[in-house]
Amino acid sequence: MNPVSGITLHGIQAMPVEVEVETTGGLFQISVVGLPDMAVKEARERVRAALRNVGINIRGRVAVNLAPADIPKEGALLDLPIAVGIACSQSGVTVKKPSLFLGELALDGRLRGVRGAVPAAFLAKEKELDLYIPPDNAAEVGLVNEVSAFIVPDLKSLLMHLRGECELRRVSRTVASDSQLAADPDLSDIKGQAVAKRALEIAAAGHHNLLFVGSPGSGKTMLAKALKGILPPLSDKELMEVLLLRSTAGMPFSTARERPFRSVHHTASAVAICGGGANMRPGEISLASRGVLFLDEFPEFSRDVLEALRQPLEDGCITVSRAAGSVEYPAKVLLVAACNPCPCGYAGDPIEHCTCSQAALERYRRRLSGPILDRIDLHVSVPRLTPEELVTIEGKCGETSFDVRKRVSAARKIQAERWGKIGFQCNSEIPERVLRRNIKLPTDVKNFILKSLNRVRLSGRGLSRVLKVSRTIADLEMSDNIEIQHVAEAMSYREGEVLSWMNS
Amino acid sequence: MDELLKAFLLLNSVGADARAWKKFSVLNIEASAIWKNSRRLVNAVLSQNAAERLIAKEKENWAEKEYEACHKTNIRIICYGTPGYPKALNELEDPPLVLYWRGSSTSMSDRTVGVVGTRRATSYGRRISYGIGSRCAAQGIAVISGGAAGIDGESHAGACDAGGETFAVFGTGIDISFPTTHKELFERICAGGALISEFPLGAVGEAWHFPRRNRIVSALSQKLIVVEAPLKSGAMITAKVSLNLGREVWAVPGRITESSSEGTNKLIFDGAYPLINFDAFFGMHGSQQPLFGNAQSPWIEEDSFSQEEAAVLSVLRRENDMTVDNIALEVKMVAADVLKIIAILSARGAVCASGPGRFSINL
């Protein structure tokens, strides 16, 4: 292998790119081959200026080949390996140990941060390569174990290091902080809304997707944000996945084990949500992976976007296929959707009156149904409180996020023990047939369900969603068996119940 | 095809009612003469326009086609003056000539209650109408209404859910589901009652159809309950027709601040019976005593509630539309526990959602 390599991103994986340089006589020219994109082609100018600033004037015709030749290369992160390759071929610098270089060059030779440093670190670790990175990326690479990485402040110090004239600083290991996260907002900051808070707890415990229905100003967004704070902290493996994704997207990272929360506006395109685009980036659903994806004004999203969400919600990953090839991004999100009860937002509101026509209401209800709702286990009404009601409950805070998170973590542990053998983690992931086989219902509970089914119409799928939620509620109470109260509570979160009061 | 039936169908299709037929009888015109004889005869009773439409329809064999279509889809055609024709309709001065009739009930008992009101009902109105529907069903009283959204739909649904007989009178052709969301409800009405319309198959709901429909609802209902109605509304027209027919009119009292109760409160002011509770209404209606006492629904026994459940119920009896948090304050319990109790109570049907995140006693 050529000792000078860079990387290009394929999904969240780094692919090694060998940089070969040949110089021949003739007029000065640099040509780059190997499917470079615009950013890579423009590297010529940055590399030439940076090399001149460290005293290397390029002579002759320089051909730079980026191998393998059939993979498209993208991004400015190939500036540094190209510069090192040219320096090797023209000024006697040698790279002894095979190494990965990445960084975008400034004209004066300084290095700028790039996206993809973490995938590069994983590649370097796997292949036991040395890694040279810009200072901006040092902290995130430090979170990756056992990787031999050097911080390159500028091209000059790198060339001195390669000549053995001085030693570059190594990346110091950073450890993810285990300190308890302050939940923001904390559940106790939210007044009232006991039902919604309880639903958040169940959603967090069993990884059930959630739909909030409520008037503007009832607190749906705040509740959704609070969900992040009651999820258990990221495990090491999950943290690495989050880190990889953020680095791939070029987003700032944090060393805290806080779960991602992504709020998406309803004008977002399918590509923005699912990933893809001209140079393949992860979409919002991947950036929210292992955390919460919040879709406010749910019915306003285009049908295409919602349909596109269905498969990743089921599989926990999303495959983006384009002419240039297909990549897979993780997409294991907890979906929280929010919507108004009607187009004007005030149906059933105690203060404002709804001004929607019957036809508008019907249209809206039709939008609020469909296959994507099949993936949402918990449907919850969020009432807007009257001023009198707000005053009465003032000062009653309820539990803090910290207390709730403890119960959630315990319930998750129980589920992992129960389903771990067959490869699942949470109740929501259990396929229907496994669920029916494994859930044992006492006779009185069965009778209760039968009686309830006479009162409410529930499809087969609806029933199994109720059973899954019942299982989670029982787990939260550390109960081995599902009891009547668990099923009754699960029933109150079923689809259709949120709008039942405005039926027919 | 029977000539009388054909004559009725044709006359009905151009909007003529039994008054026209009576005139033909006075003039001693035979059924077949209506379209075979000169236009002059027709014009004597019908307007020029209607007569032309009638003759055009006869030429294209419209009546035969209509009859065939009804036959295929199990729709019965009941003519004025035949044995199956509801006697109550004869009290109208303009009884419909023809009724299109679809459903398992083949005749109408004389124990009927009409429930009418606005389409834009409040949750209060919905609960009351549903409650009236199911209480009527429990007492074997047929519920008559207009099949519309809001009050009408709830009263039908209440009767259907309790397994009772209910009749929906359409302002459209009987084969049209209007509103479309009631398609399923209409099938359920067919199973335990019937759909009725005087309009030909495929007729869309034109504005003038609905007052016509309302007179049938009035005539078929021995007693009429107006649940929620603004001052100017179809329900008020229905109430007026009922009063003119000498029927008992009941109105459900509402808050004086709600425009949807202005009509009903006005009716009470003008002397309609106020429906202050169900027992008062059902006690006066016929001789049969309530079958279930005060029970709310067939599988709730009052004394089967635990102490906490009873506490929550008593709070909800006192005040409507409470959120879980406010109930928790009233009964001095943790909100999470109240939530579980509410869940159990609503699964048992004792409590229902009356607004977003708000609960009330189920009637």
Explain this structure to me?
The complex is a heterodimer of chains A (about 500) and B (about 375). Chain A has about 500 residues and is α/β, with parallel strands linked by helices. Chain A folds into two domains: about 5-165, Ribosomal Protein S5, domain 2 (2-Layer Sandwich), CATH 3.30.230.10; about 185-410, Rossmann fold, CATH 3.40.50. Helix content of chain A is about 40%, strand content about 15%. Chain A has helices at about 40-55, 80-90, 115-125, 140, 155-165, 195-205, 220-230, 235-250, 270-275, 285, 305-315, 360-365, 385-395, 400-420, 430-440, 445-455, 460-475, 485-490; strands spanning about 5-10, 15-25, 30-35, 60-65, 100, 105, 110, 130-135, 150, 210-215, 260-265, 275, 280, 290-295, 315-320, 325-330, 335-340, 380. The longest helix of chain A has 19 residues, at about 400-420. Chain A is elongated and about 90 Å long. In chain B, strands 1-2-6-5-4-3-7-8-9 form a nine-stranded mixed beta sheet, sandwiched between helices. A two-stranded antiparallel ribbon of chain B has the order 10-11. Chain B is elongated and about 85 Å long. The N and C termini of chain B lie far apart (about 50 Å). Classes of the chains: A alpha/beta (about 500), B alpha/beta (about 375). Chains A and B meet through helix 6, helix 12, strand 18, helix 13 and helix 16 of A and helix 8, helix 15, helix 16 and strand 10 of B.
State the gist of this model:
The complex is a heterodimer of chains A (504) and B (363). Chain A is of the alpha/beta class.
